[in-house]
Structures
1.
Amino acid sequence: MAKQDRAIRTRRLILSAAAEVFEERGFPSATINEILKKAGVTKGALYFHFPSKEALAQGVLSEQDGRESVHDQVCKIQQLIDTVMLHAYRLQSDPMVRAGVRLSLDTQAHGLDRTRAFAGWSKSLEGLLAEARVQGELLPQITVEETADVLVGAFAGVQAMSQAMSEHGDLLVRTSALLRHVLPSVTHPSVLATVEFGPERGEAVAEVVDRPAAGELSPVG
């Protein structure tokens, strides 16, 4: 068991180091030697877990996918908002998430499956929108697959713009503005009146997700 725990710790250490290097340098410029130096492990230890730089990058992308999800909300539009705002908050505060986003948006990251992150996001939001439809929260003309794709694409653009303009410093404000503009075309005014999507929502959701045995966030406040 101790050997297995040590291997798990080593893998996490390597992934954390790789995330920092990928986030700082981008995939094409990052080198295995830089990651080894930052992780403080041997080349053999790294290659035991990840046989190539591409495998390391895919590991970072997978690790990002496995980050905590929001708690269930009675209102599924609120849960969708919380999912997006939590990701925006994590992007500001979590190097693994920042690295995953940079890898996903890096057109020079040849050899990586960059579709997985976008497809996963679309599927997640599509599921929430489908539940929202069942509960009568969506406008009748909405197609959940199309709306999910539009939200993911728009959010990716907001992330890229925020990174260029402020190194993600204003991402929560921009994400809140995106939702404020998009959601009125998706959901009923009566639903919008009950949800919270201000810039502070991301941190509030993170506090609940990170707190053991946390309860559900209230829709407002």
2.
Amino acid sequence: MRIILNDSGIFSFSGLNDSWEDSEGKKLSTCTIITTEPNSLMAVIHDQIPVILRPEDEADWLGRDKDDITVFTEIA
């Protein structure tokens, strides 16, 4: 199965990533895709779907200078 937008354009998922060191000094990189409840079209496939960012929200989501959590809850 191939899932695309109506306009067949490229889209971005919202996600989080981090790198940190454990107590032994080993580096660990982690990532996750943020999910939400599906719409009626996707519900027949799965009970969770990735949050798709609108193109106009991508810069805010990726901006490292953002620390206001309300910006991100409005986007997602």
